[in-house]
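Fold it.
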Amino acid sequence: MRFGLIHRVMTDALAVLGLLALLTSGELDPWVSGFIVLGLLVALFLPSRYRQQRFSRWAGVIAPLALLSVQLLRLTTGPDPIPVIVEFAAGLQVIRLATRRGAAHDQQVILLSLLHLIAGTVLGGGLAYALSFIGFLVLTPGALVLSHLRREVEGNYRQGARDRTGLPVDVPRILRSRRVIGRPFLLFTCLLSVPVFLFTAILFVLFPRVGVSLLMVQQPRPTRVVGFSERVDLGGVGTLRSDPTMAMRVHFSSLPPHPPPRLNLYLRGAVFDRYDGRSWSRTPYMGSSPSGASSFVVLKRHPDPERDRVMTIDLQPIDPPVVFVPANAVALRLRSRKGELGRRPPQIFAGMHGELRYLQSDKRGLEYELFLQGDDERLPELLRPEEAEKYLQVPPNLSPRVAELAHQFAGEHRGSPLRTARALETALRTNYQYDLESTAGAAQDPLYDFLFESKRGHCEFYSTAMVMMLRLLDVPARNVTGFVGGTYNRFGEFYAVRQGDAHSWVEAYVPGRGWTRFDPTPPSSAEPQSDVTGIAAFAREAIEAMSQRWSEHVVGYNLERQLNYLQRVRKRWRELAPREGTASPSFSGQRKALLWTGVAVTLLGVWWLLRRRRGPANREGQPGLLPPSALRPVELYRKLEAALATRGVPRPSATPPLMHARALFEAGHPTGEEALALTQLYLRARFGAVPLSAAEERDFEARVQALRIQRPSGTHDVSPTSDRAA
């Protein structure tokens, strides 16, 4: 493996991971992200010869200053400073990658990537950041070591250092060398990530949590979802049917061994009572706050733990901030996030029609529990006559043909609100076709076009038609929007509700039963329109489950969770301790086993360290210095050095052997010719893999002895420095 190539690959990988942490934070415009990715690709694959050109040097100086000036100018025009800063940090990395020329620039790339990772922690912290973080743990030790080695090599070259043969340091040859780095080195540096990860994990778990709201300078942006605002145009919800964006995760306290792959939930979000012929709206009403400062909200009655089923919803940030609840929910409890300083608990507000909204200091979504009544329990709601009037309103320009069609569909069931509603529901399901591409919404009278012209449409047309027909038959009714159901995630054991699950249905008031749900949309058409199946669906489920676990256990790790974990550890340790006055078998078993395991691991580690210390000596004769084949040549050369020292020409420690011998020879020293010949014999035996025979060794020693007793003929200055100076 080539030293330079491995170093460049690891450095580039860190740069890519750092930019990934920034780009996936959601703070950059898609166009800006595209330009950054394009610039990154150009910088990574730019031939090295272009980086050595003069224009590249100028670009490395001018481009960062120009980018800084542009971003400062943008800040004066009033945009959000966070995206501007993120763009500058990402652009700076791209410029440095495109203009780097040596180890110093590579170290700057690594430093910038680390800063990007830290910024990604504050900006986002999603699953993509988790992948970047793991990649950093694995690659950073090796990249730092290689950068240090390369900088030392280049530094020695600039200082005029020479190799062991006396020649100047050849940087390109070292970078191309396959002997500098091997697989054991890469494996060792990658394994360094294990103790680093363990230390980081322990620090993360034990360090007191102060709440992420103090660190998250940028809150997630709520996703705008049509269908839940104060006014909804006919045909708006149908545009979401193919949107796979996650809206919420739904957990149940108990599920059957084989949960159904899809479950109808009918989570109510918004209720509309006024229709003007084109749009639905709500009667103005100042909502009350049933929760107040409490996290508990009573919807119908207080919960009964023995018979109520519990549903937990992890709602993603959406706009408007609607709380989605099923019709059979009797109470709601907010999942508190204790230990997060500076964050107020959310407040729940109830509307006129029982719909709920929330208000909180940040925009991080909502997590709450719902208590559901049993199927056999009835809690009817009373509808006063003055309230029923608004649920009988019809637009004045409604075509008379709609009333005729309503009487036709109801037939003989007109005397019973329940049977009338069921008859209309069945007629709409069987006589009309579901179509997301229906043009009825663009017509002057969308409802008339749906019922009598195109006879094609999506859920809002079905629900609007049924509400108007029920009102024309004196049955109070209202239009409801929400999410119809979710798809089971086998990895996370939750139901994923997506924006494509947005739906519209009908609630009709039935005496003795209260508000009753009816869905005139064909059942198969109420499911989201998605082409993700097979392996793609499997992969999406796995990724969503990992994202959920990461958000819950890492991003959502707060003081409350930390105390719970520590209490569990403390409780478990106490269970292992013996009780007073008794000999606990658990102590003699599990606790002693832990103790002896620790002792064994410690002894094994000591033995391994001792073996590592003795290993080089056994293999090389000296502690980690020389192999056995080099011991005899080194011993002979040391005798030569001693002989030269007695002649007044010792070898300086910083001067290579061959360079010293050549200096003696070129200076005309009496020992120069013999010293050069003996030094070449030493180098051949030491580095040329040509060992000296016994006769050659005896001859070497005899010649050294002759040098030692040879009478000096004069004084010579043979140091390499003085020779060069002369």
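The first strand starts at residue 223 and ends at 224.
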